[in-house]
Write a structure and sequence with these properties.
Blueprint: H1 5-21, E1 25-26, E2 37-38, E3 42-53, E4 56-69, E5 74-77, E6 81-86, E7 92-98, E8 100-104, E9 110-120, E10 124-134, E11 139-150, E12 153-162, E13 169-178
Antiparallel strand pairs: 1-2, 3-4, 4-5, 4-6, 5-8, 6-7, 7-9, 8-9, 9-10, 10-11, 11-12, 12-13
Length: 187
């Protein structure tokens, strides 16, 4: 029997390419510190997740696509993330949007990155490329560059920490900006 070696090479190339394209996600890509590879245990589209503490809703998270890895207790969101944060009375205090995110299932901590925008109900907005929300302390934080606006005021800096209302905030380094004093009415 004669086997065409050109055909065999193409067949092997197709098999190799198929095997590469079906490889599992690298845990480094999903934000885990464990560098082993794993397949997701769950996958869902257009989902809503509710994060609560002691029976009180803290955040609602919407995403276009999510993966859950039981081994790492990690949810990965890779198709847009929209978060609504709530106060102790159940009132919405701010919203967050980003391209990607992860949720640590043990702590409910949220990590987001890619075009992060936080808007508070009282008009402040925060732009950055990455941000973490620590559920236990109800605190948002980043070491990245941030751009904070409030009405006509704008501040840029590096390293940011605030509650989700963005009322109590601090910028750690490279602070610069423009603050416009409120105009006093004429007498």
């Amino acid at each position: 029997m004669f086997i065409n070696s050109r055909f065999d090479f193409r067949y092997i190339l197709v098999v190799v390419l198929f095997a590469i394209s079906c490889s599992p996600l690298d845990q480094e890509e999903i934000g885990s510190e464990n560098h082993q590879q794993s397949y997701p245990d769950q996958e869902a589209w257009d989902t809503v997740l509710y994060l609560s503490k002691e029976g009180r809703q803290e955040a609602t998270i919407r995403t276009g696509h999510r993966l859950f890895f039981l081994e790492f207790n990690m949810t990965v969101m890779d198709d847009g993330v929209q978060v609504t944060f709530f106060d102790k009375n159940g009132q919405s205090v701010s919203t967050l949007e980003s391209d990607h995110g992860t949720i640590n299932g043990l702590t409910n901590d949220l990590k987001v990155w890619g075009n992060v925008l936080v808007r508070s109900k009282d008009g402040k907005s925060l732009e950055t490329d990455s941000l973490k929300w620590f559920s236990a302390r109800n605190l948002i934080q980043t070491d990245a560059t941030v751009y904070l606006t409030d009405g006509g005021d704008s501040i840029r800096g590096e390293g940011f920490e605030a509650d989700p209302t963005i009322r109590n905030w601090s910028i750690q380094r490279q602070i610069r900006g423009e603050i416009r004093p409120n105009e006093l009415p004429e007498r």
